[in-house]
Amino acid sequence: MVVGHGGMDKPQIVNVIQSLSGYSLADLQQLGKAVEQAVRVNLSAAVGQSKNRPPCPVCKSENPYRWGKSGTDQRWRCRTCGKTYANLTGTPLAYAKKRPELLEAAKNMLGDDPLSCRKLGELLGVNRMTAWRWRLKILRSLDSFGDTQLRNLVEADETFFRESRKGSREWALHHDGDGPAPPRPRWRDYDRLREPLPRGLSRWQIPILVLRDRTGKTCSRRLASLKHASFEPVLDEAMAPDALLCTDGGAVYRKWAKSRNRAVEQVNTKRGIHVRNGVFHIQNANSYHSRLKDFMRPFRGPAARYLTLYVGWMAFRDRLRVTTIIGNPLIDRLLKHKRQPDETRKGH
Q1: 232 Cβ contact partners less than 8 Å away, ≥ 6 residues apart
Q2: 310 and 139 in contact (C-beta within 8 Å)?
Q3: Which residues pair with 65 in a beta bridge?
Q4: What integer pLDDT is reported at residue 337 of this predicted model?
Q5: Could you state, in order of their start, the residue ranges of all structural domains in the chain?
Q6: Could you tell me where the DSSP H helices lie in 90-127?
Q7: Contacts of 184 by beta carbon, 8 Å cutoff, 6+ apart
Q8: What is the widest separation between alpha-carbon atoms in the chain?
Q9: Exposure letters 254-276 (e unless 16+ CB within 10 A, then b)
Q10: Which of 184-193, 212-221, 226-235, 330-339 has the lowest mean pLDDT?
């Protein structure tokens, strides 16, 4: 069978499809995996390829000439500074040894049910830690993602996540005599030791402030604390000058409105008042809280240091609910993001 650069002729494709009925189930499964891998490789080769000459990442000159290839990637040489580079140079995809699998991981992140890193690694045939590093690499391009300058009626409310020290090894180091006792037991130890969990809010619960207007635009940010100084910059960023803030009975919102000479409408949810005058409520923000909790549940509590990235991931997915997806917008953002050192490998 001869295949040209343009692919098979239509009669050849029809003959291949018709011949599939003569294969056993095991052969078809093996063939399906081979076809799936070939599709991944072809899609990977297409990423970063451009008909235009990319500018030099060093001197920004826009007149390079071709300088061979690195695998499937076209390389270029700058006429001004003499540096060689490819389309992906300087992006997080540079030096990716398993680019097809990384792109498949990015595709899974936009699916209906994103897999945990362990299950994703099993699916792609890579170690779970590799899948985790890929996920963090992609999520860094979504850091602090969200809408700003929300207009009209803007609802605001906080939700809370337990602090997670996943991956810190502080208890293991303490047992080995290499570190002090951690400030609190592990969450699972409360069940094992039959101790009551801390009631109410505490410093072990991380607040996430969600602001959402009636058109569906959302700004969600992690707060350092429940003090006014933590709310102030988020509200200033999210609220347009002509927007009206609608919240629960929290005093911190009244303090912000007074300091900015702004109006605020509040509903006293603690007294069972959920809708006032048929207009003022925070049910859209609470609905987003519910979806955020459901989204986080399969990941069993992301480490607190990465919680902001997961909040941005949820905001990005929520934005795509009302837009038409063409290609993979995560990869588009990744290509525009500057490559950063891999902090997860420090100490190894």
Answers
A1: 256, 259
A2: yes
A3: 77
A4: 74
A5: 56-89, 164-201
A6: 99-109, 117-124
A7: 204
A8: 77
A9: eebbeeeeeebbbbeeeeeeeee
A10: 330-339
